């Protein structure tokens, strides 16, 4: 395996691994270890170029620094990406080679699941490193983080509804869910149990059928999800879906969902506010999964520790939205300040 350092100002370390035998092409980006070893999932995606993969890894790694700090975890921010098609290229050998790559960083980075990576894939990687979490086996195995992420999103969505819709009760509210994957489907379950109506989209027909039959969800085409008559838009697919174009179509009054890096660029926060749409900052709302993974990394087997931290995400969201509303400041700016203060005093 060939491992080379990549230049990335503002990041502690960014490395690229290529391995001919397994076909592995992967980047690990460590943004900060100020609060502890970097932790963040591994994404497998069909990136067009190494540069595209690097940009994604850098954005995601920085997001993890903010997410872990906002969730009060003693962990820094990092992320890894594998350049491959999860539906075609994934083999045990590929994931094992990735495990060796993670191990080469000697514990400065812990990996786990993200888009395109399952519990089984992490188990393959873990054959060659002890710096992998989100395992179903083992004394501290925490399994799939997605249900915990979904619970955190659901709790924070209620808080956002309190500020953006006047009531935290989601009964009778319409939620537009973009992406019915690991998190999106669990989120729909929470929403359906709360009596919310679901309008959803996905590009995966099987997921669409499941959401229709289990939650009586109304299904729309991927491009049509922004313009539907909904109270809340919940981005639960890939990042960047809250863009100038999608914001111009949104009818929802609140954006709260699981996706990482939801805002397509720095102007989108203001564009949402200009339209009177309340944005619940993504990295606060979606911290449940990493809290679950952190319990495994930190060898904590007490589910109450996880629950308390996930519930605290809602308290943090409440503080952020309260301050944002009172001072007329964009919520994601308040969230960034909150984390910058934590990092400055670390
Ligand atoms: P996933 O891959 O299981 O689900 C993503 C879903 O989005 C898939 O069903 C996919 O078909 C669908 N999708 C892709 N492109 C789409 C499009 N253009 N329109 C509609 N649907 C589309 O991933 P996941 O684990 O559910 O994660 C969803 C998002 O939440 C990601 O951005 C991820 O980074 C973030 N996130 C996940 C976790 C977690 O615990 N899994 C934690 C924090 C953040």
UniProtKB/TrEMBL annotation:
Record's keyword terms, sorted: NAD, Oxidoreductase
Keyword Zinc (UniProt): no
The organism's place on the tree of life at top rank: Bacteria
Record-annotated Glutamate/phenylalanine/leucine/valine/L-tryptophan dehydrogenase C-terminal domain positions: 143-346
Pfam families hit by this protein: ELFV_dehydrog, ELFV_dehydrog_N
UniProt keyword Chloroplast, yes or no: no
SMART domains: ELFV_dehydrog (SM00839)
Entries under InterPro entries matching the protein: Aminoacid_DH-like_N_sf, Glu/Leu/Phe/Val/Trp_DH, Glu/Leu/Phe/Val/Trp_DH_C, Glu/Leu/Phe/Val/Trp_DH_dimer, Glu/Leu/Phe/Val_DH_AS, Glu/Phe/Leu/Val/Trp_DH_bac/arc, NAD(P)-bd_dom_sf
Similarity field: Belongs to the Glu/Leu/Phe/Val dehydrogenases family.
Identification of the protein by name: Amino acid dehydrogenase
């Amino acid at each position: 395996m060939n491992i080379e350092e990549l230049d990335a100002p503002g990041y502690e370390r960014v490395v690229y691994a290529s391995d001919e035998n397994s076909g592995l092409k992967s980047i690990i980006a460590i943004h900060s270890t100020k609060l502890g070893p970097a932790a963040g999932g591994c994404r497998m995606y069909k990136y067009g170029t190494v540069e595209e993969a690097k940009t994604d890894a850098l954005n995601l790694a920085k997001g993890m620094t903010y997410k872990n700090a906002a969730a009060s975890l003693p962990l820094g921010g990092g992320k890894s990406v594998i350049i491959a098609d999860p539906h075609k290229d994934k083999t045990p050998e590929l994931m094992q080679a990735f495990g060796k790559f993670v191990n080469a960083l000697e514990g400065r980075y812990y990996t786990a699941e993200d888009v395109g990576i399952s519990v089984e894939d992490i188990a393959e990687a873990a054959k060659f490193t002890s710096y992998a979490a989100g395992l179903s086996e083992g004394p501290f195995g925490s399994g799939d983080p997605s249900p915990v992420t979904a619970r955190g999103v659901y709790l924070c969505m209620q808080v956002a509804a309190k500020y953006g819709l006047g009531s935290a009760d989601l009964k009778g509210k319409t939620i537009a869910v973009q992406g019915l994957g690991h998190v999106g489907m669990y989120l729909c379950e929470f929403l359906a149990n709360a009596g919310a109506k679901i309008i959803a989209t996905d590009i995966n027909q099987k997921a669409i059928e499941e959401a229709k039959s289990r939650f009586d969800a109304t299904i729309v085409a991927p491009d049509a999800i922004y313009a539907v008559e909904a109270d809340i838009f919940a981005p639960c697919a890939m990042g960047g879906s809250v863009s100038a174009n999608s914001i111009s179509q949104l009818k929802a009054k609140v954006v709260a969902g699981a996706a990482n890096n939801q805002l397509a660029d720095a102007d989108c926060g203001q564009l949402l506010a200009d339209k009177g749409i309340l944005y619940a900052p993504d990295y606060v709302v979606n911290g449940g999964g990493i809290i679950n993974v952190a319990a495994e990394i930190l060898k904590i087997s007490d589910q109450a520790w996880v629950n308390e931290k996930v519930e605290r995400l809602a308290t943090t969201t409440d503080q952020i939205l309260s301050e944002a509303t009172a001072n007329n400041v964009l919520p994601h700016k308040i969230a960034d300040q909150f984390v910058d203060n934590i990092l400055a005093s670390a």
